[in-house]
Automatic annotation (TrEMBL):
Full protein name: Phosphatase
A Pfam family matched in the record: PhoX
Lineage: Bacteria, Bacillati, Actinomycetota, Actinomycetes, Pseudonocardiales
InterPro entries: PhoX (IPR008557), TAT_signal (IPR006311)
Length: 681
């Protein structure tokens, strides 16, 4: 097998335009985490002293059933092709650079909804030359990321499709766009193209082709939708502005990346790279405030989109607290179109990729969330209240308060191999795995802070700073994180971190074992005793991503000549058979388009990663929902390559011809009649 061609030159494998508009050029700025947490060597010494905290000891606490499934089964070499496990019976797609969605032989595909398609009554037909803020507020937003399909009938033929619209790429949205002088109308379009969409979709039993339908449940959430702030930081002085002296009502949400469906049928969504929208941090007089802004990557003067020219709340010299009102996990009840969405402060403020819920045996809930930036942390929240069963509005109202009362923790991950064996190349240590143990360190519970020198309110609003102080583990961009619905094991995509090992930056650690980490890794961990409330856990790297022919990659011990190449894991999902699905954001680091992969987690084929679909050039694969015969994904930022624009599109997906590319939701299905178990949700 040949090494795949590697892209060179650009320090991120994404196009520069994506870096600018999606993350505010996060990769080109100084890493905001300059804290001096304990080094890996310090932690290792401590662990050696305590001895008993070795991963094995923690795993040994696990219940019989879980323990039996947690030890990674090394694949036995087999003659010929192994039989595909249930749910993964498709011919793998070859990596490619096509301007198309490529699916396995025997599958069909169709567009569910595109940027600009009507969502609300009165939405005008999309016309890129005549977009207005009012039109966009009734149409499907830009750059769909997370997606959920909430069942709406008993036959599985109707669902509420909920998607995030992470960010706008103005140079691709407006012909003749002048980056130095955006018009007020263009800015209004951008405000309306952010947020979320709720839209009813239906399909026939013979096809996975969902189509949007008018419905009273259809809804757009934008930068102007009121949100109720909930949890212990609601009403804090740190959240008050002149427009909201109560610190409890925020207009809008933005940069919503991934999310989660709660067991009670609402949507969680993470506000991620919100730093890029706020201007003039460098002009804020108070030094402590400037430092706190910088810890969130909020620096400089003017912003790329220049919203501060049209709404003073984006100018920190006028409303210094407005930035504190973003960076939260929001919750939306799509079943009640009149409901006010909330921002849950108890889950802390950082660059939330997502949040996902697990219900504990006693009815309490646990939420996991990652802070997606280089050298940031993984968090866990445990509720005090218990879930109310049923799908009544009353139950949902109660359950929507569960994330407002509990304890917030941050993760510390410790390796079990000698530091000298973690040499930064990705070479496996002598015990055969990157693995170890870990613990959850409490940050705050209600009005009680566990962090010296910080009030509880400060812990919630400046959570990164609190996590620095307690010695959390700096990870390689924690993205989507979800507990497996059957085993309870937790999977976290760690996207990449090309800064690891650079001068002044932390070097290799066992959970983040590669310097200049271009391709990322997938972390697997389980709470001690299989108990989601436990404060200790064991962990291992399930995948160390990249070109399987490269020596620094690892696929859970499965023979590497049989797996698909993968770079920059981003979203994770599970199918009903228990397989893990991973979508990627930056496979350009391997010279290939992004895609969606399926992989068994147990048995002889654990680690046999298979590429299921790829998205058009310049695009990212997001929001996978995986059924046996119907799979949907969001195709985000198609054609977003350097040099491209609305005047010079390099992708013409999905409309073809000379059209501009449009971010869209795509359905992929196997022909035939589809039962309930065949669709994801
Ligand atoms: Fe928006 Fe973490 O990707
Ligand atoms: Ca080890
Ligand atoms: Ca993401």
């Amino acid at each position: 097998m040949k090494l795949l061609p590697l892209l060179t030159g650009h320090s991120s494998s994404r196009a520069a335009v994506t870096c600018t508009y999606r993350c505010g050029d996060a990769c080109f700025h100084e890493v905001p985490n300059t804290s001096a947490n304990p080094t890996f060597a310090d932690v290792l010494t401590e662990v050696s002293r305590r001895g008993a905290l070795k991963a094995g000891a923690v795993v040994a606490l696990a219940t019989g059933g879980l323990a039996a499934t947690t030890a990674p089964a090394l694949a036995e070499p087999e003659q010929g092709k192994p039989k595909p496990p249930p749910g993964l019976d498709f011919e793998r797609v070859e990596p490619n650079t096509l301007d198309a969605v490529v699916v396995p032989d025997g599958y069909e595909q169709g567009i569910v909804i595109r940027w600009g398609d009507p969502v609300l009554p009165g939405a005008p037909a999309w016309d890129i030359t005549r977009q207005t803020g009012d039109a966009q507020a009734k149409q499907f937003g830009y750059n769909c990321d997370f997606a959920a399909l909430l069942p709406f009938d008993h036959a599985g033929l109707a669902a509420l499709l909920v998607t995030n619209h992470e960010y706008t790429t103005e140079t691709h949205m407006f012909p003749g766009y002048d980056e130095n002088n955006p018009t007020e109308e263009q800015v209004k379009v951008a405000w309306a193209a952010h947020g979320l969409t709720v839209v009813l979709v239906t399909r026939s039993p013979w096809s996975g082709q969902y189509r949007p339908k008018p419905s009273r449940f259809n809804r757009r959430i934008t930068l102007h939708t009121p949100f109720q702030v909930t949890g212990p930081a609601a009403g804090s002085d740190l959240l008050k502005t002149s427009a909201d002296p109560t610190g409890t009502v925020v207009l809008g949400t933005m940069n919503n990346c991934a999310g989660g469906v709660t067991p009670w049928g609402t949507i969680l969504s993470g506000e991620e790279n919100v730093n890029q929208y706020f201007a003039n941090a460098d002009l804020v007089a108070d030094e402590q405030t400037r430092k706190r802004l910088a810890r969130y990557g909020i620096k400089g003067t003017g912003t790329v989109r220049k919203w501060e020219r049209f709404d003073s709340r984006f100018d920190l010299t006028k409303q210094v607290n407005e930035a504190n009102r973003f960076g939260w996990v929001i919750e939306l009840d799509p079943h009640d179109p009149e409901s006010t969405p909330v921002k849950h402060t108890h889950l802390g403020r950082f660059k939330h990729e997502c949040a996902n819920i697990r219900i504990v045996a006693d009815g309490r809930v646990v939420a996991y969330s990652g802070d997606d930036e280089r050298f940031e942390y993984i968090y866990k929240f445990v509720s005090n209240g218990k879930v109310k069963k049923g799908d009544s509005t009353h139950a949902r109202r109660h359950n929507m308060t569960l994330l407002d009362d509990g304890t917030l923790y941050v993760g510390r991950f410790t390796g079990d191999s000698p530091a000298a064996e973690i040499d930064g190349t990705g070479k496996l240590p002598s015990d055969g795995e990157f693995d170890g143990s870990g613990e959850w360190i409490p940050l705050a519970a209600g009005n009680r802070s566990f962090v010296d020198g910080m009030t509880a309110e400060e812990v919630y609003v400046f959570t990164r700073e609190a996590a620095d102080k307690v010695g959390a583990t700096k990870m390689d961009r924690p993205e989507d994180i979800q507990a497996h619905p059957k085993t309870g094991r937790i999977y976290c995509a760690l996207s990449n971190n090309v800064e690891r090992g650079n001068p002044g930056k932390e070097g290799a650690t066992e959970p983040n074992p590669r310097l200049n980490n271009k391709h990322g890794q997938v972390l697997e961990f389980e709470e001690a005793g299989g108990d989601a409330l436990a404060l200790k856990f064991s962990w291992r790297l399930f995948l160390v991503c990249g070109d399987p022919a490269a020596p620094d990659t690892y696929f859970a011990g499965f023979p590497k000549d049989q797996v698909s190449p993968i770079s920059s894991p981003d979203n994770v999902a599970f199918d009903r058979h228990g397989n893990l699905w991973i979508s990627t954001d930056s496979a350009g680091a391997l010279g290939i388009n992004d895609g969606l992969y399926g992989v068994p987690l147990d048995g002889k084929q654990r680690g046999n990663l298979k590429l299921f679909l790829t998205v058009p050039k310049g695009a990212e694969t997001c929001g996978p929902i995986v059924g046996d015969k119907v799979v949907t994904v969001c195709v985000q930022h198609p054609g977003e390559l350097d040099g491209a624009s609305a005047d010079n599109p390099v992708s013409h997906w999905p409309d073809g011809g000379a059209s501009v590319p449009r971010p869209s939701v795509v359905a992929v299905w196997k022909p035939g009649r589809h039962g309930l178990s065949d669709i994801g949700g």
